[in-house]
Amino acid sequence: MNKLEVMKIFLAVCEQGSFVGASRALNISAPVVTRSIAQLEDYLQVLLFNRTTRSIVLTEAGRIYQQESQRILDELQSAEDLVSGSYVEPQGQLRISAPVMFGQLHLMPIICAFLDDFPKVNVQLKLQDHVINLLDEHIDVALRIGHLKDSGLYAIKVGQVRQITCCSPAFADAHGVPNTPEEVSNFTTITTNTQSEMSTWRYYSNGKEQNVKLKCRFKVSDNNAAVQAAIRGQGLTQRMSYQVSDGIRAGSLVRLLKDFENEPLPVNLIHLAGRKANARTKQFIEYAAAKLRDNIALNAD
């Protein structure tokens, strides 16, 4: 049994969620995958997957083996990179994570330019709005908005954003605008599903945080939809400044209650490797940081 090859097959099954999916991803037959996992379980004398007719689920032993296998393969890749020159010339796989709308609006153009400038680098971009564990998700670089709690992360600040309340000029003309946070409750609002459990927006007034109850008429599935609904005059919405800065500059959105906005949140590029980062990670961080710092949408005032 080739342990490294079996590890790769095992990790492919974990990622794909099935033996058939792993066989397709690796371009090998499904029986080879099944036999390899069976040999691995027999060798380890543990069950790595709980199997049903419809799905497979990692056991506790399987989750531990998944983490350690990924660590071993990552360290092997680092060693190969070191001797092959990847720590000098950017090349190989780069895994990046970012919030969905931020990635679409502000990171995608940077990644595309980076790929053009560094043709030996491949990028896998994961767009997701929840905070992830870089080690568990095997992410090299992530963009994170907000104050960092994990002291084990290396962070490079690239800007700041804040929550902004806004509406379209047409809505303002037809319904007026709130002059204080208390008046927000008199207006129809647009929220996202992630806010569905929250019936308030937060403001800062008289030296303390103030929560305002909403009269929500329109809930949508993502941030971009909320912005578009606001542009079309469906009500007030409260979004991150980077999400609405283009609309405000274009005049399709009007910024409201600026004097009551909360303090800005930092925007950081984060990674785990520090000085041991390979050339592709270092180069991307330097490349992206320079462009993001020049982005007016990340300089919330």
UniProtKB/TrEMBL annotation:
Reading the lineage from the top rank, the first entry is Bacteria
Task: Please give the Gene3D superfamilies that the UniProt record associates with this protein.
Answer: 3.40.190.290, Winged helix-like DNA-binding domain superfamily/Winged helix DNA-binding domain
UniProt key word Ligase: no
- InterPro entries in alphabetical order: LysR-type_TF_proteobact-type (IPR058163), LysR_HTH_N (IPR000847), LysR_subst-bd (IPR005119), WH-like_DNA-bd_sf (IPR036388), WH_DNA-bd_sf (IPR036390)
Q: Where is the HTH lysR-type domain?
A: 1-59
Q: Which UniProt keywords apply?
A: DNA-binding, Transcription, Transcription regulation
Family named by the database record:
Belongs to the LysR transcriptional regulatory family.
Per its record, how is this protein called by name?
LysR family transcriptional regulator
